[in-house]
Design a protein that fits this description.
two-stranded antiparallel ribbon, 8 helices, 344 residues, mainly alpha, single chain, 2 strands
Amino acid sequence: MRRPSPIRGRLAALVVVAAVPLALWAGLPRSSDASRLDHAQSQLDQARSREQSLSSAVAQLSRIIDQLDGDIAILQRRQAQVQAELDRARAQLERTQIALRRERAHLAELRRRLAYSRQVLARRLVQIYESGRPDVITVVLDSHGFADLLERAEFLRRINDQDKQIIEAVRRARDATHRVTVRLAALEARQQRIAAAVEAQRNALASMEQALNVKRASLARARAARMAALRSARGSRQRLEAEVSRLQAEQAASASTSGPTGSWVIPWAIVQCESGGQNLPPNWAGASGYYQIIPSTWAAFGGSGPAAYLTSKAEQDRVASRIWDGGAGASNWDCAAIVHFGGL
């Protein structure tokens, strides 16, 4: 403890020389603690390396998945365009098929009418043939005058011309309808080929999208597995960091407060300088005990009894800890300055 010291200079020199090797020895970590710390540090380094590797893998998989998402979006837009083209082609094909069915029905009706007209004309020709050609005298005698004669002749001519016109009109309509039917049939075949080609393109795009979705799902599962592993590695790394910090703190505390004769509440180098780790009786200044506390300081910090050396080590530890106060009370020991001066 701090006290009058007329020989402080000589004592300081002697203590520095004696305390340096002891303090260096005391500052070395114990082999078991060092081994535990080295093992924990090695595990921490491995955990950090694994965490970094997993993080890089997750980032790379995320980039690939993002690229696939972009490709899938492009395919979906293209597929929507092709589907619209297919819908238009199918609608046009359906309209053509409706028109073709209508024209085919019309053509069938015209053919039926043409056949009927030909049958009527044939029957009339047969009737005329069977009745024979009337002679001029019969026609004249049967007519009620010249006007009636002309009217009968004109009637027969008109009937014949009308039959021919009907047949000709039906034939022209039939031919025109046949041409339209042929054109529509060719158009239908062409539109079917177009619709089939567009549908094949749509199916190819759908197949490509499905393949990309399968690949994306596989990558997503791989990323999820690596993310789970990354969370586990991060947790292990955090636990190992806490363990390393704890071991380092323990080692530092052990290095500063442990010595050959036990553990101490102030740095061992100071204890070594003050008492050599012995429960000494009062010196010329009244300082005593393991920590060489003078009576006035002992009483001020709640020590029991008249002097430190008369109490147990536990009591001396309690009072010295209060005096030390985490290092704030280091000035109460002369050796604190000497040890610090000596680079210990």
